[in-house]
From TrEMBL:
InterPro entries: NTF2-like_dom_sf (IPR032710), SnoaL-like (IPR037401). It comes from the Bacteria. It comes from Nonomuraea glycinis. Pfam families: SnoaL_2 (PF12680). Residues 11-117 form the SnoaL-like domain. This is SnoaL-like domain-containing protein.
């Protein structure tokens, strides 16, 4: 795939993580894709590797917990023929009345236009603060 096609694919996927995005975005993940949340399992409840089906189920549960949904905005995309880097922000109103205003960095590996590996970096302090009672 071309660099521009890779940029478009990862942008569509990241925007698809929000309730404002396209559900077809998950089709951009290769059948054997691995999504890794790069956090410390001892201090953050969501961390480590997930298969494509496990990741999609995780996102469904996450969306179900947000009364007003979550909006994802891509702020930067850098790509080559096999890799892409995305910076993004999100905002959501939580059930506890707090706002989750998150920042992300995603590192993707692509083969033939499909994402085979994703590494998600988030600000865990923001998330823990927002979800705390």
């Amino acid at each position: 795939m071309t660099i521009d096609q890779n940029k478009a694919s990862v942008k569509k996927l990241v925007e698809g993580l929000g309730t404002n995005g396209s559900p077809e975005a998950f089709d951009l993940l290769h059948e054997n894709a691995v999504w890794t949340v790069m956090t410390d399992a001892a201090t953050f409840p969501v961390s480590g590797d997930m298969s494509k089906p496990a990741f999609i189920e995780h996102m469904k549960r996450f969306h179900d917990s947000l009364p007003s949904g979550i909006h994802m905005s891509v702020t930067s995309v850098i790509a080559d023929e096999a890799n892409a880097s995305v910076e993004a922000t999100s905002n959501a109103l939580l059930v506890n009345g707090k706002s989750l205003n998150q920042v992300y960095h995603f590192a993707f590996e692509l083969v033939d236009g499909k994402i085979v590996a994703a590494r998600e970096y988030i600000d865990t302090a923001r998330a823990l603060s927002a979800f705390s009672g």
